[in-house]
Specification:
By secondary structure, the protein is an alpha+beta fold. It has helices at 36-44, 50-53, 57-76, 126-129, 147-157, and strands at 16-22, 87-91, 104-110, 119-123, 174-178.
């Protein structure tokens, strides 16, 4: 991780959100919000991808539940989501995510291009963050954060991708849930 890519807020450093994706699909193509049957059909086109091949119907049902929960928690904190389901990005570079796709690509967007009132964050991937099996009581479990709050967690714990131990329970990146098409629409392929 380069210091110029990320750091706690207020130090004048330019920060980036990264979006990793399968080249064949293109960036910011979201299956969230589609009926589960349609998500499963689309998934079947990418069975050679590690990221997609292990997804079951229960995965999609749980993701739908978690997206509703995160949106609700974000609104309670004063967030202003425009969309019903988010686009997923990560705060800072995460080489691990390139392994999720057969032909991985990424886009990085300066955080100043976003309205921070439309972005929630989890300190770790959504699934382990809200997992019922993980009961370690850490302060970042089962919560979404605003940008200034997640910056405080980064100051305290560092970026997870810099010390990830490879386990499901350990945070592997700071996930950003982008609840608006702006500026995402500027980075989609035609």
């Amino acid at each position: 991780m380069q210091k110029s890519d990320i750091g706690p807020g207020g130090d004048g450093v330019e920060y980036y959100l990264y979006h990793y994706f399968e080249r064949k699909m293109g960036p910011f193509v979201s299956m969230s919000g589609l009926p589960i049957e349609d998500q499963m059909k689309i998934q079947s086109q990418f069975t050679s991808s590690f990221f997609i091949e292990n997804r079951t119907q229960r995965y999609y049902e749980r993701r739908t539940e978690l997206e509703r929960l995160m949106r609700s928690l974000f609104i309670e904190k004063g967030g202003k989501p425009v969309l019903d389901v988010p686009y997923y990005m990560v705060l800072g570079e995460s080489p691990f995510l390139t392994t999720w796709y057969e032909e991985s690509e990424y886009i990085k967007i300066p955080i100043h291009e976003f309205d921070l009132q439309t972005i929630s964050f989890t300190y770790g991937d959504t699934f382990p963050t809200f997992s019922e099996r993980i009961t370690d009581g850490l302060e970042y479990r089962k919560k979404v954060f605003l940008y200034n709050e997640v910056s405080g967690l980064i100051q305290k714990y560092g970026l997870p991708q810099d010390s990830w131990d490879g386990t499901y329970e350990s945070p592997c990146y700071v996930e950003a849930q982008v609840w608006s098409d702006i500026p995402v629409c500027n980075y989609r392929r035609a």
